[in-house]
User: What shape does this take?
Amino acid sequence: MNKVQIKNRKAKFEYEFLDTYTAGLQLTGTEIKSIRQNKASIQEAYCYLHEGEVFVKGMFIAEYEQGGYANHEPRRNRKLLLLKHEIEKIEKKLKDKGVTIVPTLLFIAESGYAKLNIAVAKGKKIYDKRESIKDKDIKRDLDRRMK
Assistant: This one.
C-alpha cells in the first residue's frame, strides 16, 4: 500500500501551532479514490466551525478519472469527524483574537480511512517569520559542516 502524505508546507511558516488534532473526513467514494492516487491539495484550505461542527473549506480533491456521472465536486466543503469534547476545546480557543484552524497533513491511516491533521494556530508576525528563516539557515549551515 502506497503512503499518502499530502502536507501544507506553508502552514508551519505562516502560523504558530497552539494545539493539534487528528480528524476523520466525511468523503464520497470517488474522493477517497482520488486521495489514494495523491491527487489532492490542502495548500489553500482552512477550517471553520458551524453549528457545533467543524468543516474544511478550500481543500482540493481532483475528480476521479473513472468516476463518470457519480463524480464529486473538487472544492466542496467537507465535514471533519472529531469528538465533541475536542470541538468544545477548539471552540474555546477560537474566541481569542487571531486564532484559526489550519489543516497541516492529509494522510491515509492504517485502517484505510483518510485522516486530516489540523492545528489551532495563531498567525506569526513578520519578525517571527524572519526568525524562522534565520533558524533554518543556521540548521542548514550546521548540516553542511557536519558532512
In short: The chain is about 30% helix and 35% strand. Strands lie at 5-7, 15-25, 40-41, 46-50, 53-57, 60-61, 78-81, 99-108, 114-123. The chain has a mean pLDDT of 87.
